[in-house]
# Entry
Amino acid sequence: MIETASGTGTRLADRTAVITGGASGIGRASALRFASEGAEVVVWDLDPVGIEAVVTEIRQAGGRAHGVAVDISDASAVAAAAAETTAVAGEVTVLMNNAGVLDDYAPLLDTDEALWDRIIGVNLKGMFLVTRAVLPSMLAAGGGSIVNTASVAAFIAGGGGTAYTSSKHGVVGFTRQMSFDYAHQNVRVNAIAPGAVETGMSKDILYNDDLPVVEALRSAPAGRHAQPEELANVALFLVSDEASFVHGAVYVADGGWTIR
Ligand code: NAD
# Structure
């Protein structure tokens, strides 16, 4: 059994888990954590080198993992990825919609149509395309659990620019509507809303004094940024049976940023 700093177990034994953006950051940590609880993990990402690294790490530790290189904003590529996934790993019973891109804190007048389309295309439309492609497999398996990665930018301004904040507000709406529509078919849908997490996405931002968000980050009560593994543990709880009555929830893990 693969080991992580957070331990090992059987909470996801007999589950097949797709994790988008699983080659880096929160997705990578979640791939390792889910595998440590017995899941057969399928990493979906744009980055083939990153996919190979995490899949190799899980396999070498005795876990089960596969990788699929896919752009989640491309509907036909997503459909092909879903077919490949069920062919190699069976029906999907856990989905973590986590891949995302940031917009460098662009306000509206710095947001051209191409930037808007890219951010919404990955963060929101990509989530729609992936879920629509994977859900039939989950229903065929008799149900499952989905966790979507939102952000504190789903609730407050200043966690990203216009496109990013809009996309993350959309993720919460998507989560609630999906939960409402599919709970009776044994599908639970929830979201995590991270604050500042040290990952590839955030490394150029968290210590950039020119960005207004940095002051807010510094004054978060916890007084530090999160490590990706801390978000992976929240995602694990939500997809596991321990959260069996949790539907449509958005679980904030932000070091207290939004309670100030
Ligand atoms: P990251 O950059 O480390 O990882 C994101 C992964 O998504 C990368 O591996 C990237 O290749 C992949 N990806 C990007 N576009 C893709 C596409 N079109 N198709 C497939 N894969 C794609 O970033 P992270 O910080 O781990 O971000 C994960 C999620 O967490 C994102 O949704 C992000 O918005 C959210 N989030 C991050 C923070 C933070 O502080 N890091 C805070 C709140 C929310």
Observations:
- Strands lie at 16-20, 40-45, 64-69, 94-97, 144-149, 187-194, 250-253.
- The pocket of nicotinamide-adenine-dinucleotide is lined by residues 20-21, 23-27, 45-47, 50, 70-73, 98-101, 122, 126, 149, 151, 194, 196-197, 199-202 (CB under 6 Å).
